[in-house]
Amino acid sequence: MEKKPENIIRLQFLVLLSGIVLMAIKFVAHLITGSNAILSDALESIINVAAGFFALYSLWLSKQPKDENHPYGHGKIEFISAGFEGGMIVLAAIYILFEAVHSFINPTEVKQLDIGIYLVAFSGAVNFIMGILLVKAGKRNKAEAMVADGKHLMTDTYTSMGLVLGLVLVQYTHMLWLDGIIAMLMGCMILVTGYQLLRKSLAGLMDETDPEIIADLLIVLNQNRKTSWIDMHNLRVVKYGANYHMDAHITLPWYWSLEEAHEEVSAVDRLVADKFHKDIELFLHADPCIPTSCSICELSNCAERKQPFQTRMVWDEANLLSNKKHQI
Description:
The two termini are 46 Å apart. α1 (5-33) packs antiparallel against α4 (113-140). The protein contains nine helices and three strands, in the order αααααααββαβα. The chain is mostly helical.
C-alpha cells in the first residue's frame, strides 16, 4: 500500500536526524583514535547530512500539485537532488583521497582502535537499516530522491564494514600505513558512488530513454492491441519525479469520424492507466492511415483497402520510438 506523502516526508526527516547523530559519533571516534580512515568515514557523513536536507526539501517540493508555472509538476527536483548528492560525494571522495595519500606517506599513530571499531560498526549498522527503509519507501512511492539517499546510506554501510575490517587488521599488525591504504580504498568506492548518482541525475534531467519503462509499456500495448490500431510511432516517455508523461502517434482509419478516433485514443489512455501500474499522463496524436498502411492493417471489413494485408507489425523499441509511419 502506498504511504501518504506526509508519512514519507516524516521518514526522511527521522533519517536525517539519525544521520546527524551518527556523524557526531564518527567524529568522536576519530578524536579518540586519530585514524584518518575513520576521519574519511566521518567526512562522508557530512555529505550524508547535507544530502539528507536536500532530499527532504526535494521530496516535499516534488509532492506539490501542478500549477500554471509547472504544468508537468515539480518532480524534476528529485533528479537535481540526486545530482547534488552525487556532486557532494565526488568532492568528499577527492578530499578523502588527498588525506589518505598524505597519511600513507606520513603515517601517524592511532590509539584506542577498539572503541573506534565499535562506534564505526554501530553507525554502519544503523545506516544500513535506514538505507533499506528509504529505498523500499522510495520505490513504493516512486520518490527518486529518497531512493538515491537510501542507496547512499547503504553504500556508506559497505564502506564502514571495510573500514572495520581494516582497523582490526591495523590493531593486530600495528602496520600504521594500512590506515592510509584503507582510506584510499574507501575514497575510491565513494567516488564510484558519486559518479553513479551524477550519471543517473543527468539522465533524468536530459530525459534519457529508460529501456525498462519502454519494455514494460510495450508488453501492455502488444498484449492488448486492437486491430483498429494500425500503427503506433514517435513514442516518448519522460519521467517527472513519481509521474510519467507519454507522447505517441497512433494510426487509425482515415475515414473515421473525429468522435470514433477520440474513442480509440481514450481506449489507449484507459489501457495504459489500468495496466501500466504507474502514474502516467498520456497524450496521443491520431494520424490517418495512408495506402501503404494497408499491408500492415488487420481490419478485415475495410471498404477502402488499397492493397492486401501482408503481416502484423510487432511493436518493439526500434519501430515504436521512430518518428515515421510503418509499412512493409
